[in-house]
Every structure is written in structure tokens, then in C-alpha cells.
Amino acid sequence: MNVLLNEIIVIRLCCISCNKSEGLNRQYQKEEMYLKPKERNAFWVMWSAAFTRTLLFNTALMSAAVILAAVLGGGFLLIARRIFSRRKALRSLSYPASLMRGKTVIVTGANCGIGKATAAELLKLQARVIMACRDRQRAEEAAQDIKNQAGANQGEVVIKHLDLASLQSVRSFCEEVIREEPRIDVLINNAGLYQCPYSRTEEGYEMQLGVNHLGHFLLTNLLLDLLKQSAPSRIVMVSSKLYKYGSINFEDLNSEQNYNKSFCYSQSKLANLLFTRELAHRLDGTGVTVNALTPGIVRTRLGRHINIPLLIKPLFLLVSWLFFKSPLEGAQTPLYLACSPEVEGVSGKCFTNCEEEQLLSKATDDNTAKRLWDLSENMVGLRR
Fold first, then answer.
1. Rounded to whole angstroms, how far apart are CA atoms 229 and 172?
2. Which pLDDT tens digit goes with each residue over 212-226?
3. Residue 154: which residues within 8 A CB-CB, separation 6 or more?
4. How far is residue 327's CA from residue 225's CA, in Å, rounded to a whole number?
5. What transmembrane ranges does the database entry give (predicted)?
6. Burial (Cβ within 10 Å: 0-12, 13-18, ≥19) of residue 353
7. Most-buried pick from 187, 238, 297, 346 (CB within 10 A)?
């Protein structure tokens, strides 16, 4: 009887795997009727176990096939892109080794991603780099890493605590910088959050707006006098091409009525561009320039709040290696705006891949930029 049970199970599994053997399946259905109750129970236990094993095997086999196909299909593209992108990543090496000697540069969010790569390249150019970071331990680990990479003739690294989600932290940071630093040559507003779950800053502002825009708005304004004293000096604002999908919702800027994490990120990146435009007007003739940039898609921790299904992760990682920029590649445009003689005196522009980018009209509207500036002043407490 065990032989019959096994035969029935095999035929059933075959019928699941393909649409054939329907006649055989009907044959064994009849034979099941002659099984005794205990034997029928044993049959269903064995059937369930066999079905589960087959299902798991087929799922694993399909996943392996997808991953294998992606690897084989993308292998050639991976090699080609690595060769091509290597030339782009070496652009920073064309700068004179002592280009930034004697200059002080602040980089927010310098402990990872684009910020860390930018800080590392500036250190090689012998700049005094102030890493403005929220997590001091991670900042110290990143600082040690970039110092190890920079070689013998390198600049200096200084770590200072800055939490852009706290306006009080921003004020304390600026007070410390003004007290201890005789000059600031470049301010790179790099730190940011991307599509995080709904939360608020210490002062109660929507987190993406608060960190990406308001924190940098206050930081920049509080350091303006020192930047003017250090002229010629530069301000660099890291935005995103996703600004195209946003707008400034003046009726609910703090997203109290409705929260859409994608829209809020795009809104904050559009705010970066409008802030850059209005600030450029206000700094005209001071010797301080301000420009924005969109780095493109870069392999960083910025997307850590995005949930990717487990089975898709291997394919996503492969795609990211194929088509996303490395942090070093992503750092080329902020580095270009921070130290290249080619953009000396250029202000109020946006760049991508070290070239000027044409923005949509929503990012160049002077009336919207002025209105956002006035509202931001009120929100961070600058307007008396």
C-alpha cells in the first residue's frame, strides 16, 4: 500500500508541475477511494509534505534562475561601465595637489556617501575640512578612514557636532565655528534625508523639510558674516533632480494636513534650489557665491528608509552597481563647485556632472523664492 501512496503523490506533483497526465490523475483519484481511513490520513500528510517541498524547490529554482540571468546579462554592461566610469572618477586628480591649502571647508553629513567622498578629496587637496555630523562616533570612524586614504601630504580634519533636526544644535555649531575659526572659505550643504517615515524635528517641523531645507537655511545665514569676511568664498547646495516632482505647498508647508514622503522630499529639494536663487541675489557684490547641484543616482545610505523585498535585493544590488554612481563619482560636482577656478565668480546656477543644468521654471521663480525665504526666516526665528 505504501507503493500505491507514493505513486499517487508522484502523479499529483507531476500534474501540478505541468498540465499533462490528467488521465493518470483521474485514475489515481479513483484508487484513493479504496484507501482505508488511516491510510487516507497518511496519504494527505505525505502529500502535504511533498507539495511543500516541491513548492519551495520551485520558488528557489526560479529565484536562482532570475539572479543568474541578471548576472550573466549584466556582466558585460558591468565591465563596460566600470571601465568608462573609472575615467570620470579620476577627474579630481587633475587639480593641483595644494589647491585648497590654507582654506577651511565645512561639509555637512560628511561621515558617509557623497559627503565623505567630498571630504576625502578635499583632504587630499590639503584643505582644512570640518566634518559637521550628527553621529560623532561614525564621524570619527569616517575621519580615520579618509585620513588613511589621503596619503602623506594631506590637510587637516576637524569633527564638530551638528544635528540639522535641531535649530538649537545649528546655533550652537555656528557659535563654535565663529568663535574658533578665523575664516570659512567653502560651505557645502550636503546632508539630507530621503523619504523617511513621518516624524518631526525638535521644533516640530516635518523632518525632511526641517533637515534638508530649514536646518541648512539657518546654518548658512548664521555663517554669512564669516563667509563675507573670508571672501572670495563659496556656498554649495546639494539638491536633487527629484525637485521636478515637487512644489512649494505654502498652504501646508509643514505637512500637517497630509504627509506624502515622496512629495515632501521633492518639495525640500525644490526649496534648496529656490533658496540658492534668492541667496545669490542677496549676496551679489559681496564676493560670496552660491551654486546648487544635482548629483544623480548615487550608491549611498540616503535610501535606507526604502523597503526592498528580500527576493529583489540581489537584483537591485546588481542594478545599483551597474547604473548608479559611486560616492566618488557623485562627489565630483560638489568638489568642482567648491574649488575649481572654472566657476570662480559664478553664482545662482545649478550644475550636474560639472556642467550647468537648465532648471524648470518652478525652480527659477523669483516670487516663489522670495516668499519661501520670508516664511523660512519666520520658521527658524531669524526675523525680528
1. 20
2. 999 999 999 999 999
3. 123, 124, 126, 147
4. 32
5. 55-80
6. middle
7. 187
